[in-house]
Design brief:
The chain contains five helices and no strands. The protein has helices spanning 3-26, 28-42, 44-65, 69-87, 90-124. Helix 2 (28-42) runs antiparallel to helix 5 (90-124) and helix 3 (44-65) runs antiparallel to helix 4 (69-87).
């Protein structure tokens, strides 16, 4: 393919991708997810708990690897307490629900694109 045709094909591809991203950004599911994500990020106390939970889980894995069973058990127990606190937070519950919906939308879209691409490839062969 000559250079100008390659450039045009890339330009068409980029244009199509940008249009798809623009449409996705306007989808109510994505808008709702982004709003929930912004609320969660704005809640510093929840964010701090999330960071603590991740650090505790990481420490627990390390303790288990080095054979410190009691430290592992205590750290995991604390991690579970923090996780339970997070799991009862309405903002986090809302965020997870909207994230799941957005993920399902993207999975559906990707599955449809894959099917269409595969059908097109089979037609060409």
């Amino acid at each position: 393919m000559p250079s100008n045709q390659t450039d045009r094909a890339l330009s068409d591809y980029d244009l199509t991708v940008n249009r798809l991203l623009s449409k996705l950004a306007q989808h109510p599911t994505v808008i709702q997810f982004q709003a929930a994500e912004s609320k969660l990020k704005a809640t510093s106390a929840l964010y701090a708990l999330e960071v603590e939970m991740k650090a505790l889980a990481k420490d627990a894995v390390l303790y288990k690897k080095i054979g410190k069973i009691k430290a592992y058990q205590e750290t995991m127990a604390r991690s579970k307490v923090v996780e339970a606190q997070l799991n009862n937070e309405p903002i986090l519950i809302d965020y997870r629900r909207k994230m799941t919906a957005a993920n399902e939308l993207l999975q559906h879209l990707l599955q449809n694109l894959e099917t269409q691409i595969n059908e097109e490839l089979h037609r060409e062969n």
